[in-house]
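Appendix B. Raw example, untouched.
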Amino acid sequence: MTTVVLRWLHRNLFAKPFDTALSLVVIPTLAWAGYAFAHWILVEAHWEVIGGSLKVLMTGIYPADQLWRAWFSVATLCAMFGAGLGLSVRPGRAAMAVVAIVAAVIAGTIAAAVGVSAGLLTTVAIALGVAAWIAVHHSYLDQRIVLSGLLAGVVAIFLVLSPPGFEVWGGLLLSVVLTIAVSILTLPFGILLALGRQSRIASLRVISTAYIETMRSVPLILVVYWIWIIVPLLAPDSSVPSLLRGMAGYALFFAAYVAEYVRSGLQAVPKGQIEAARSLAMSSWTLNVDIVLPQALRVVVPSLVGQILDIFNGATLVFIIGLTDFLRAGQMILADPQNSGRTYEIYVFLFAVYFAIGGAITYASRRLEAHLARGSR
């Protein structure tokens, strides 16, 4: 073992004089920075500001007496994520041990910061996610209906959260729900745009191309703000909530990028398969749904998951239409004079949560990509 370690160090860090000099500078610097950061986290930081403001960070200004709706949504989201994992990740002993440790840390932290009841509810939500993970992985029937279940979960979240009003949605819950809803909306719209851009009908091809290129040429903030303004102008007697208008802007914008990803996947499908299907007198619908799209979507899975991360990170722009996303909730806490000196604690916590969610999505994406690759061999 020692020989292997020394060989790795020599090959990667001290192979040449320049590598040796660079390693002697970088390694001590990183060690010092890591020690200083760990010392600040464990000794100097005042994390009580996170515990006292956790409700605002998680749900924004959502009514406190209606938080059971938020907990229902959290449990549903955990079940949805677990079901997604069940499609590609085997719930082995190592994975379950990691999940148990992470769950214990999260539930214990929430119990200490908020209360025992909140810790128990967190444990129940994570347990539902694990149960969905195991059930989907071991049941072929559940694998076939998992997409319908995900759609039903999103609808249930909207129905349960909506009674107090869309304008009170906020915090991390708003960012996650917006990301999931927009990701679901952009996929079918993007597929239609991609097929339209490759259509033999000239007018449909021109319209699809013009839409895609227009949306890719303007910034997201402009599209969201434009949709938010133009809806009341077109329908002055209607009262469409700002959240729904914002979601429409996100969906219209990101659908153009999904269309380009799908179009690249369509071009990767061998033309011989398309010609063979047409020689068998298959209809265009059967050809696209059963042969072309499954192979095209398999190719663009990494791009589509990257799109989900872009939507989640771009959810911070909803502040321009008066909504309180996760980042805005942190800024609201810092606006309180009592918390003005806790800038580092707030932003480190925000960074850790964004990193954890992004890392989980990326890991699930890689496992799904590997699973699809095995299925295509």
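End of appendix B.
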